[in-house]
Specification:
The protein is mainly α. Helices cover 68% and strands 0% of the residues.
Amino acid sequence: QTLLGSHYATGSGVEKDEGEALRLQREALRLYLIEAGTNNCAAQANIGLKYLYGEGVGRDEVLAAEWLRKAAEQGHGEAQFNLGSLFLKRQDYAEGEKWLRLAAEQGYSPAQLKLGLWLGRKNGQRRDLIEAYKWLKEAGDNDELGGGQTMTIVIEAMTSAELRKAISEAWSFKPKPASECDDDEIGLRFR
């Protein structure tokens, strides 16, 4: 329903029809709400994304955060990533970093890239180049575009001792097991 609604909204493969797109998005939301009632974290995360992007509902970051948090607290990596991204956007950096780190530790490569970028620049706060290197290397190893290229910038800012430590930490990293949540239903990321 969600994917088909997106196709109607953009005219991708079908004739553009905003009315049909809205109907399909609302039907998808109705089905997700039923599943969310059974504590299905993928459904909760999808509802969060619907509110975040205003798909079939009014755009509401507060409700988006509430639904994303329900899924994130169950260990849903993509919900953790989206929640962390939302907190960074709101300039709640500690909370944003916390959720990005949880997703990155599970091996979710978009979170690894974003966390590495965040730790490498931190806009006025103390940068952690060693951690930035680790996460950018992981993202690059997981074929996340931008991880390997950005790592060069981080390396150039490091001392040789920091680089040795960063390489050691990166090689010893092992992702935590992913949660029991079913991630298959989500295909959208925080933009």
